[in-house]
Amino acid sequence: MPSIRKTLVLAALATALWAAFGARSRAELGPAPEGSFSLIVLPDTQTYAARKPEIFHAETQWIVDNLQRQRIRFVSHVGDIVDQNVRPQWDVARAAMDRLHGKVPYGFSVGNHDMITKTGDSSLFQEYFPASRFEPFDWYVGQFGNNRNSVQVFSAEGLDFVIVHLECNAPDDALAWANGVLAAHSDRRAIVTTHMYLGPLEQPKTSRGWYDDPKGRMRWKKCHGARGNTPEQMWQKCFAKHANLFLICCGDQSRTQAMRRAVRGENGNTVHEVLSDYHEGSLRVYRFLPDADRIEAWTYRPHEGQLCPGTDIVPDPDEHHFKLPYEMGRGRRQGRAPQ
Asked: Is 2 part of a structural domain of the chain?
């Protein structure tokens, strides 16, 4: 009996130690390993521009402080930069984003809160973040509508990328421009960031519907009136057509908060559609591991110095920290199977 009791005690101790290790590793974001690199996605910052500027500043300061540790190569903002389209909030946004300026490439999707929704007028965004602000940088390679829509390039670990930022419910002329951009850069791996994309399939009719209704690529819109395209239309008219597209990032839906899907484009390419819309201070780190043909997604809270442990809306931590398979070629050349 003593030996059995001792075995049970040791087993319980081992379980406790393993749980403690798991909790500690979940709470910390380690450095990006050699041979990897990171894309940072800033979810909607509207709450911070309106009421919590210290969180906005903490996020961009963390990015600057971790450029080397996390091997950060690009920062993408999914839109709703501000809550109300007024100068005091744009002042907060520009001051926070100024930390990145000249230190790391970055771009914006213009969200519905960043414009006059009926007309799509984003003149205040364009005043604070005009095309002329970015034109001196060689990574800024084009724009449509004075930076309402923009395209950037970056390279890392021998891989070349193009990233297109599209305004919320981009009209046909913006999509035609995006189609041309993606075709012109077909030799690069393509990412799209737009604002409204994943969430309730149809516009909810009840308050609970925002949480409980069927979700996916949305079939309704908020901006540009009759000219605007729904997310589903944006997919059909543009995104699905490009064989080099592998990742679409979006925000907008704080009552969905975190969601991801893998779909097929018209050319058979896998496209990862990922939503992140956190209002409690989280940002998303996409860590590319070319040797493993894998992207790791980590959701991190700079102002708390810890990984997201789960939220009231999405309590499962695995919905905030996950892996996306993506063939980058190096693993196969080195005789390793994709993971």
From this structure: no
CA 245 – CA 171 distance, rounded (Å): 20
- 3-state SS class at 8: helix
> Is residue 19's pLDDT more than 90?
no
Nearest to 292 by CA among 244, 247, 336: 336
| Residue reference for tokens 């923009």 | 150
Q: Given phi > 0 = left and psi -120 to 50 = alpha, else beta, which region is 307?
A: beta
Distance from chain centroid for Cα 92: 21
Nearest to 129 by CA among 162, 168, 171, 101: 101
pLDDT in tens, 289-306: 999 999 999 999 999 999
Give the CATH number of the domain where residue 243 resides: 3.60.21.10
| Contact between 284 and 324 (Cβ < 8 Å) | no
pLDDT in tens, 187-210: 999 999 999 999 999 999 999 999
Which residue from 124, 98, 101, 94 is spatially nearest to 111, judged by alpha carbons?
A: 124
The dihedral built from the CA positions of residue 316, 317, 318 and 320, taken in this order, carries a sign that is: positive
Does some domain include residue 22?
no
Can you count the helices (H) and strands (E) in the chain?
Answer: 10, 16
Total tally of structural domains belonging to the chain: 1
Closest-CA residue to 303 (of 286, 274, 279, 277):
279
Q: How many CB atoms lie within 10 A of CB 199?
A: 26
Strand partners, 230: none
For the chain, state the CA radius of gyration: 21
Q: Which domain covers residue 130, as residue numbers?
A: 37-333
Listed in sequence order, the residues at least 6 apart from 278 whose beta carbon sits closer than 8 Å to its beta carbon are 43, 44, 254, 257, 258, 299, 308, 311
Q: Which of 144, 145, 253, 150 is nearest to 193 (CA)?
A: 150
Instruction: Cite the beta strand spans of the chain per DSSP E.
Output: 37-42, 72-77, 106-108, 140-144, 149-156, 159-166, 189-194, 198-200, 215-217, 245-250, 258-264, 270-276, 283-289, 294-301, 306-307, 322-325
Is 31 a domain residue?
A: no
In a domain, 199, yes or no: yes
